[in-house]
Amino acid sequence: MISKDKTYKTRAGLDVRIYAVDGMSGEPVHGAIYHPGAGWSLQSWDERGSFWAGAEKSEYDLIEVKPRIKGWVNVYFSSVNKTKQEADNWLSSSPRIACIPVEFEEGEGL
């Protein structure tokens, strides 16, 4: 379900603004797509964000842009383990050997 509280791009990577999600049945999502060099064009989508209802895929389908999270990871070991369980077994209070900046999409793990 498309929400006005989330951020979207088109499948082709164009910026999108969502104005309403309660339009007439069939295409209840109303908004605009930004075309570089040309500006904003009004568009509508079905409740799932499909540009062409019933079609497989369109370059104008809505794709949610999830927030990116930035942080730092401390590295304490220089060994590589075959499983997470093996890695967990090596936890200790050893001095840090690196501090690495990371960026990941919300929900990707950590």
What does it look like?
By secondary structure, the protein is mainly beta. It has two domains: 8-64, no CATH class; 68-105, no CATH class. The protein is 5% helix and 37% strand. The protein has one helix and seven strands, in the order E-E-E-E-E-E-H-E. The chain has one helix at 84-89, and strands spanning 8-10, 16-20, 29-35, 39-45, 62-64, 68-75, 98-105. Strands 2-3-4 form a three-stranded antiparallel sheet, with no helix packed on it. A two-stranded antiparallel ribbon has the order 1-5. It has a two-stranded antiparallel sheet with strand order 6-7. It is elongated. 10% of the residues are buried.
Q: Uncertain runs with pLDDT below 50, 5 residues or more?
A: none
Number of helices: 1
- DSSP E strands, number: 7
Helicity, as a percent range: under 10%
Helix-strand category = mainly beta
Strand order of the largest sheet: 2-3-4
Name the helix and strand elements from N-terminus to C-terminus, one letter apiece.
Answer: EEEEEEHE
Gap between N and C termini: 27 Å
How much of the sequence is in beta strands?
35-45%
Mean pLDDT: 85
Number of domains: 2
Query: Radius of gyration over alpha carbons?
Result: 21 Å
What's the story with the biggest beta sheet?
3 strands, antiparallel
Shape descriptor reads elongated
